[in-house]
Design brief:
The complex is a heterotrimer of chains A (292), B (282) and C (286).
Chain A: H1 17-41, E1 54-58, H2 63-76, E2 83-88, H3 90-99, E3 104-107, E4 119-132, E5 140-141, H4 143-151, E6 168-172, H5 177-187, E7 197-199, H6 202-211, E8 215-220, E9 229-230, E10 232-233, H7 240-245, E11 251-258, H8 264-274, H9 276-284
Parallel strand pairs in A: 1-2, 1-3, 5-10, 6-7, 6-8
Antiparallel strand pairs in A: 3-11, 4-8, 4-9, 4-11
Chain B: H1 2-16, H2 18-41, H3 43-48, E1 52-53, E2 58-59, H4 62-93, H5 96-109, H6 114-133, H7 140-150, H8 152-164, H9 168-176, H10 181-192, H11 194-210, H12 213-219, H13 236-243, H14 249-281
Antiparallel strand pairs in B: 1-2
Chain C: H1 3-43, H2 49-53, E1 56-57, E2 62-63, H3 66-97, H4 102-116, H5 119-133, H6 140-164, H7 168-176, H8 181-210, H9 213-218, H10 236-245, H11 250-285
Antiparallel strand pairs in C: 1-2
Helix pairs in contact in C: 1-11, 3-6, 3-8, 4-6, 5-6, 6-8, 7-8, 8-11, 10-11
The chains are: A alpha/beta (292), B mainly alpha (282), C mainly alpha (286).
Chain lengths: 292, 282, 286
Amino acid sequence: MIYSSKPVPTKPEQRPQAGRYFLRAFPVLIFIMIALSAMLSGCRPRAQTARGSITVAGSTSVQPFAEMLAEEYAGRFPERPPINIQGGGSSAGGRAVLTGAAQIGMLSRQPAEAEKELTVITIAHDALAVVVHPQNPVHGLSSDQIRAIFAGRFSNWSTVGGTSERIHVISREEGSGTRTAFDELIMAGSNVAARAIVQDSNGAVREAVAQDKNAIGYISLGLVDNRVKAIEVDNVKPTLANCRAGTYTLIRPFLFVTKEKLSASGQAFINFVLSDDGQNLLAEEGLVTDNQ
Amino acid sequence: MRNKEKLVEILLTLIGLSSVTVLGLIILFIFKEGLPAFAQVGLWQFVTGTRWSPGKNLLGILPMIAGSFVVTAGALVVGLPLGLGCAIYLSEFATAKTAAILKPTIELLAGIPSVVFGFIGLTLMVPFIRNFFGGPGFSVLASALVLGIMILPTMVSVSYDALRAVPPVYREGMLALGSTDWQAVKMVVLPAARPGILAAAILAMGRAIGETMAVIMVAGNSTIIPTSFLDPVRTLTSNIALEMGYATGLHRQALFATGVVLFVIISILNLTARVVVRGKTR
Amino acid sequence: MNAYTTSHRSKKEDRIMLALLRLSAFLAVAILVFIVGYIMVQGFPVLNLGFLLSSPTKMGREGGILPSIVGTVVLTLLSAAIATPLGVGTAIFLTEYTREGTFSKVIRFGTESLAGIPSIIFGLFGFLFFVIRLNMGWSILSGALTLASMILPTVVRTSEEAIRTVPDVYREISFALGGSRWQTVTSVVLPSALPGIVTGIILAIGRAVGETAAVIFTAGSSLRLPQSIFDPVRTLPVHFYILAREGISIENAYGTAAVLMIAVLLVNVSAYLIINRVAARRLERR
């Protein structure tokens, strides 16, 4: 009615100017809220949104490599829909594909029961390196020794030819692709000791090992740098050549999973990943690919 | 005109229900995902089991419950005396000017993101503990220190307000009776401010038990019940955040069930706290 | 025990306690200031316009943090835009439209309980509800809605406090002049309470900016510059967490942390300045 001409008990100069705008805006804000909630329940924005961008989600082990690929892809084909790379974990990735929140899932383990209906594409293999601090005198261990260390049966470095120090075992969280692969390839039914330190990514394991002279952990071979030392396993050096030759056997697949019907732009990205260029890029980053 | 008023009232009633709605949705969704795990593992088995090995279907979260309590208690041991001491100093002894500078400074620091605390803990505290006390460095001690520092701003600012709210007459009366400054604080001011100080401690405790990222970085996350301050430890919150990304099936439900347990523990703490504070106010 | 020794002893106790209190105050301030200083000093070398205005390359090992800055700003403002009408509306309802009773108790209980819930639970909920159930995917929108739920109690509480400090006389005058309830709220109550409300919102924003656990589950961790609110985003704290945690680039991690810290401090300083101005004005009125 006489909305704005209403006398106000406060003195005009005490009334903050911003107040007027805020008051006008307030009903509008409420309206926006209602409109927003209506929109949310009505039209559900799919994962394929702005300019049909593609969401790739899943394993944090695959994530850094996928980010490299996406960056290269965007550089070469700027006109194509952009690729979003998400972490979240293998399971979150599989679930995201099943529910449509992502088009492509990244797994660093074999598909679980619920993920069996998805199309599986192996993009590369990743070698697991067992790493210790660079100053650790131990250069190699047998898989039996590694198992005994991680199971907590060997707790002193002197047992395996090192200095007399307590071994600090660093592992990954249960369920992660790296941990699952390690359990299968090394532990063979034994449990990793409950005492083991658990870190939530390969990068974090590397940082922890780089900090601690008495630590031992396992990470992707591609992540090994000069701050940690990758040791021989059963007298075989962890190198890409040995992986390809089949002598170094701590290897697991990196997988993409999709629904049966994948959009053309999603398929285009997968084609790029599987092309020679894509595979070379992965090989440069330390993954084991088929084309070399 | 009439209609508009009515409409506004209905709208505001609905908006007023928003927080209750969100709370309801949270309970609904977390419980719906988590309860099947209780059914399958058994509630008692789940909260008293000492082995956590989802791959072998061993799902006991006692180590994490113990971890959450130990770490939170440790954080209070570190943060409570330091924070309260700081608040007493600022409110009772410092000059007005000092207090006017330090109080806002500490409050500003409440905004430091928790990941920053965690990272400082990881780069400075963990190696320090490893080198000077032994063990892997990732430990109850590291977590307690990081969380204890994190809760300082809350502790200082809330208990400072409580101390300031004590009428000056109380102090003056004591001083007139010949007491020293500290005696006045100890015998009159602190008892009078007790509900507020308790509230500060409860807020701080809530923040400590609910913290996730900072703890993951420094705690080591082993699934053992810690027996020493140098043992690595895993809390309920970190159990969820660590494994959620990779969990499927029962494992995933067990993580949501961990969320349910955390939710229940925090609710119990909050309710107790409310009762205690109310009791003390009377 | 005679009077003299008592007072002598208590004088001594006084001195010791004062020293201890002074020490704890010094320690508390020193530790917190050290943390800010440490991050600033470590982060300063990489801070330049290029760092702020370019996109990261090689997973963030090189390049800048523009997408994270944009994402953080948009995400935080959107969450505040969602939480403000809900929070202020709830506060108005509690103070102006209802008497203390079962209904207001339920609302208050809901708000208080919500305030006590750890952020990781909000993250789980946001993932289940917004990301999966409502099918919004990892996006700015999912993250903002999750953060909005998280900061809602703060906005309600501070707004309610601010509105309660408005003297009843103001309302009575408005009613006497024939103002309706809503007119009274919009033209009398809210203008007077506005600084307090704004402060509360800013403080809530300060909390939202630094949040990690809830955001990583709902807004995702994509490095790309978001094009719309339906795109995923990696906020500054998440970017910092990933860079530092994975050891991708410690320098850039510190740089990111320094930017984040400056942002948080700026937000909090502005809230503080508003509080101070309001306090000063209150004193003038008296």
